[in-house]
Amino acid sequence: MKYINLKNISPLDGRYKNFTKILRNIFSEYGFIKYRLIVEISWLKYLSKIPEIKELKLFNKKINEYLNTIQNQFSLKDAYEIKKIEKHTNHDLKSIIDFLTKKLSLIKNTDNIIEFIHFGCTSEDINNIAYALMLKDSREKYILKYWKKIIFYMDFMSVKYRKSVILSRTHGQSATPSTMGKEISNFSYRLKRQFNQLKKIKILGKFNGAVGNYNALLIAYPHLNWEKISKKFVNSFDISWNPYTTQIEPHDYLSEFFSCIFRFNTILIDFNRDMWGYISLNYFKQKIKFHETGSSTMPHKINPIYFENSEGNLGISNALIQHISFKLPISRWQRDLSDSTVLRNLGSIIAYSIISYRFILLGMKRIKINKKYIKKDLKKNYSILLEPLQIVMRKMGIKNSYKKIKDLFRGREVNAKIIKKFIDNLNIPNSEKQKLYNLTPFNYIGNSAILAKKISLYKY
User: What is the pLDDT of residues 410-419, one digit of tens each?
Assistant: First the structure.
């Protein structure tokens, strides 16, 4: 960490800088400027391909290559120049228009081309597609890739620990056994559903002028089918077209998009807390790294910090998601500016999530099952066999089976000998008795091992 980072206000660019730097080309001010410039150039090129717009002829190879160079070689220096222009214009998008105008004015015979920069557009035509592209890229390049890594490792743990019997806890109390693999597979299955949902959410874009009616475009070229043109242009970015908007795209898809991330994150919070609990119960040991320190005053400690850090950052991300999911779909009449400043925080939401995903992966790789301790815990809890005992009694027609078991054993210590003696005195066939004699806390696991092994069959 460079000294200058010690003065950063946000941990996103300070403490966790190395975790979030992958998002800079997308969600930074530089990234937002670049995406908007791409949309502006794409619209200019698109207009030149419409034969009915005779005032703007189809661009020749030289113009196309020049525009491609502006876009593909866009640098921090270019972004800085645009920010300098913005100080004068006090309008962030107008500064991009002025930058592009200046670039085109450097070559001959471009006066008519310059007049078609930002033609018939409102700022939000450019901005909404830029944000759509930012989310599209972040979903494909980072979010789904991290989700896949987490799910893959959970599936790996599910299969690895499919036969590792553990005492379940319902209401925090001893309950019917499961396996650690099956308990982890529960989370994996839930996450896969969200993974598949996020993939399917359509990212929308609009391109229809100041209030969504193509007013200026129709005045200029009334005989053109601007709806068809708009749809083709938006679809050219591999995003879906929204035909009904005000000045702004209404952001419903953004709420859907981030609500899915919210659900994924909430499932991970649940997982983090369970892992934290299993470590606390000694069901998991944490791998020791001797150069690390767990506590400033208690030298023996190895704290579950990765799961704790993951939980905390997921909470921050979800808190921001709650606000934007409620805020963004609401706009006064045809436009108010309150969404604009909120939209600039989309990167923060994803960054806090990415930090938490990194921590959860580190946490999962630092734990291993503590078979010795789990075995002791199971041995102390023979009372869990009272469930199958009363079920067999009911099956064989013994009246008030549940009540008899409850009255006899509730609140009392139960061990293997007591269970065997009770079975001896039951008036049931020997085959049923033998089934009960063979039961132990170590094999009364239902099909948990099979379920854990099958988790990888559920695709994502």
Answer: 889 999 999 9
295 given a catalytic annotation: yes
Active-site residue, from 105, 280, 295, 338: 295
Domain segments of the chain: what residues?
Answer: 21-114, 134-162+172-369, 382-440
CA distance to 96, 98, 341, per residue, from 102 (Å): 10, 6, 28
Structure tokens at 261: 């991330």
The residue annotated as part of the active site, out of 171, 223, 291, 300, is 171
- Class at the top of the CATH hierarchy for domain 134-162+172-369: mainly alpha
pLDDT at 3: 62
The Cα 410–Cα 403 span in angstroms is: 10
What is the spatial distance between Cα 290 and Cα 284, in angstroms, rounded to a whole number?
18
pLDDT beyond 70 at 1: no
What is the architecture of the domain spanning 382-440?
Answer: Orthogonal Bundle (1.10)
Closest CA to 78 of 65, 69, 89: 69
The tens digit of pLDDT for each residue in 145-189 reads: 999 999 999 999 999 999 999 999 999 999 999 999 999 999 999
Is the pTM higher than 0.90? The answer reads: yes
Contact 265, 317 (CB under 8 A): yes
